[in-house]
Design goal:
With about 625 residues, this protein is of the alpha+beta class. It folds into 4 domains: about 1-130, Alpha Horseshoe (Serine Threonine Protein Phosphatase 5, Tetratricopeptide repeat); about 140-410, 6 Propeller (Neuraminidase), CATH 2.120.10.30; about 415-495, Immunoglobulins (Immunoglobulin-like), CATH 2.60.40.10; about 500-619, 2-Layer Sandwich (60s Ribosomal Protein L30, Chain: A), CATH 3.30.1330. The protein contains 12 helices and 35 strands. The N and C termini lie far apart (about 85 Å).
Length: about 625
């Protein structure tokens, strides 16, 4: 099952403790990767006089290796009662996170960081120790559901959907009674057909790839005719010990002929000294991504890539570096057709166990956690995504065994406002950009950054509005059109304020009112705020506010309504600190229309007639 694929390199060199004759048998089992047998031997010692921090740590490490995190945490607690090495504290923290014990995990991370302050994991922890709330509040990227392809009590993972609707995956559902060195059933490669309704045909084994040992996961070329797969059983070279021999996992290539994969060939990057697995082929078949504990990496297992040349040769493996890898463990890479790399990490900040991350290789940016529901407190890994069919698959042991789940993207859009000066095109930072729904309700407000940009994650196929304001500019609204594209950029061009003070009036945009209303609207308030700035800069000016109505209603009613509008305008200015002696207001009803359209006004003309104007009484 998947555990054996992520154990390589986990064995830790203990500091301050050493082997003894009592532990020699158990230690030999660890050295040969027979962890379940090692656990049995360490447990025999755990309650005897031979028990010490070495025994507790090796016992915890063995449980950790086979991903029994509850037992690992129990024994790490015993191992750290006095003092321990840095990795023991780190692994203890990792085990605690899988139990949701984040506060206690932080305490262990503090101890780890004190011993290894320059480790990237320590630096990340010290920079953001309480990251869980923000991670939990992260905008949901995918909807998730368990598939019907899983087999009860067996491990199923590594699902990969081709454009021809063939789903390849690996499973331990074989009826063979043979077990691996960790006491787990061996995995084989299977395939199934995905039906139009999302269900799957009965899986069948890809027998030509399977051996008596671990085989898979796999990756397939875009045309479906070339496959790369991980295998132990294909390896004819073994690393010998006194009482055992170990076959390292390697990568193999096969081509399809008459519906079967044939001509299986090992890749030259394989070695008897390290493992190479979890392959993923780029859309153009020119780059193969994989996981390995080969020399030159940053941690236990890293994500690497190697070029696939046209003549069938391969380049030199390249480590993907710190934007992906850590001093801990990364595995299960998948490169999507849009050049986004998905992978699982045990060492980056996550909910616990393995979490799935993505890194856009088109950009030089840090990998990001996919958040819930893809990730959980348990192991979440082996994520793949078919861009053409807009569906992903991943595995998780949140239900007790490794099961395959679907990941359907939440239909969302990144709406970006780019704020500029309308006249000069200059970028405008520190502008207030609100996003409004179709009812003009403000959903959220942010400030534009140094690039003049503000970004919001919004629903697809839904219209929104950007309301953009900046001192010295006229506020303006900009439509965010309906789209199902991933990103939509809206250029928000703001016009500099034009506030003309003549001998007789102050010319700003009309203060308009809703039909049959006298309250100041949001739009009116923005214009009146301009007037406040003028009055503050010219303290000798006194004003007469003239308010008007449209032609609807009786003369008496319109006179009364316009008077209310005049007084609400006056009161707004007073509320902003303008002395009441400087402002008077009078309603003129419908006697002075801006547009003389009589009883045949359009709604737009009526709206323009409902207004307030500002005459200078004293300058």
């Amino acid at each position: 099952m998947k555990k054996i694929y992520i154990t390589v390199g986990l064995l830790i060199a203990l500091q301050g403790y050493s082997q003894s004759n009592a532990t020699r048998k158990a230690d030999a089992f660890v050295e040969s990767y027979q962890y379940t047998r090692a656990i049995d031997e360490y447990l025999k010692l755990a309650d005897t006089k031979d028990a010490d921090a070495y025994v507790y740590t090796k016992l915890a490490d063995s449980y950790f290796t086979i991903f029994n995190m509850d037992e690992a945490a129990k024994w790490y607690a015993r191992a750290t009662e006095k003092s321990a090495d840095a990795e023991t504290y780190y692994n203890y923290a990792t085990a605690l996170k899988t139990q949701g014990k984040y506060a206690e995990a932080n305490k262990q991370m503090d101890k780890f960081a004190a011993l290894q302050p320059n480790d990237d994991r320590a630096i990340d922890h010290k920079a953001n120790p309480n990251y869980i709330p923000a991670l939990a509040a992260k905008t949901k990227l995918f909807d998730s559901a368990i598939t019907d392809i899983n087999s009860k009590d067996n491990s199923d993972f590594g699902a990969l959907l081709t454009n021809e609707n063939t789903l390849y995956f690996v499973s331990s559902r074989s009826s063979s009674s043979k077990k691996d060195m960790a006491g787990q059933s061996f995995i084989d490669v299977y395939k199934s057909t995905r039906n139009d309704n999302g269900t799957f045909s009965e899986p069948v084994a890809v027998s030509e790839l399977n051996t008596a040992y671990h085989d898979g996961p796999i990756t397939v070329s875009a045309d479906g005719n070339t496959i790369y797969f991980a295998s132990e059983g294909q390896n004819k070279n073994f690393k010998k010990g006194k009482k055992y021999k170990i076959s390292q996992q390697g990568l193999y290539k096969a081509v399809k002929l008459n519906g079967k994969f044939t001509n299986i060939q090992p890749l030259p990057i394989n070695s008897v000294d390290y493992s190479v697995g979890s392959p993923s082929l780029s859309a153009d078949s020119k780059i193969l991504y994989f996981a390995s504990d080969m020399p030159g990496g940053l941690g236990d297992t890293d994500i690497w890539k190697v070029s696939v040349n046209n003549d069938g040769t391969y380049g030199t493996p390249q480590n993907l570096g710190k934007l992906v890898n850590t001093p801990g463990k990364e595995n299960f890479p998948f490169i999507a057709d849009d050049n986004v790399l998905y992978f699982a990490s045990l060492s980056r900040q996550g909910f616990g166990g393995f979490d799935v991350f993505k890194a856009d290789l088109n950009k030089d940016t840090e990998a990001v956690n996919l958040g819930k529901p893809v990730n959980s407190e348990k192991d979440d890994f082996s994520f793949s995504f078919n861009v053409a069919k807009n569906i992903g698959f991943y595995s998780s042991n949140r239900g007790g065994t490794d099961d395959i789940y679907t990941a359907t993207p939440v239909c969302g859009v990144e709406a970006i406002a780019i704020v500029k000066d309308k006249n000069t095109g200059a970028i405008l930072s520190d502008a207030k950009v609100a996003i409004l729904d179709t009812k003009q309700n403000i959903i959220a407000t942010k400030q534009s950054n140094s690039k003049g940009e503000v970004s919001y994650d919004v629903d697809c196929n839904t219209e929104y509005t950007f309301l953009v304001e900046k001192s010295g500019y006229d506020a303006a609204q900009f439509t965010v059109a309906k789209t199902n594209e991933k990103q939509l950029k809206v250029e928000a061009l703001l016009a500099p304020e034009k506030m003309i003070v003549t001998e007789s009036e102050i010319a700003i945009n009309d203060i308009t009112f809703d039909f049959n209303k006298s309250n100041i609207t949001k739009e009116g308030a923005r214009e009146l705020n301009k007037l406040v700035r003028i009055l503050n800069s010219k303290p000798s000016i006194t004003l007469l506010v003239k308010s008007h109505t449209d032609s609807k209603g009786s003369d008496d009613y319109n006179n009364m309504l316009s008077e209310k509008r005049a007084q609400s305008t006056v009161q707004y200015l007073i509320s902003k600190g303008i002395d009441a002696t400087r402002i008077t207001g009078k309603g003129y009803g419908e006697t002075e229309p801006k547009i003389n359209c009589g009883d045949n006004c359009t709604p737009e003309q009526d709206a323009q007639n409902r207004r307030s104007e500002f005459l200078i009484v004293k300058k």
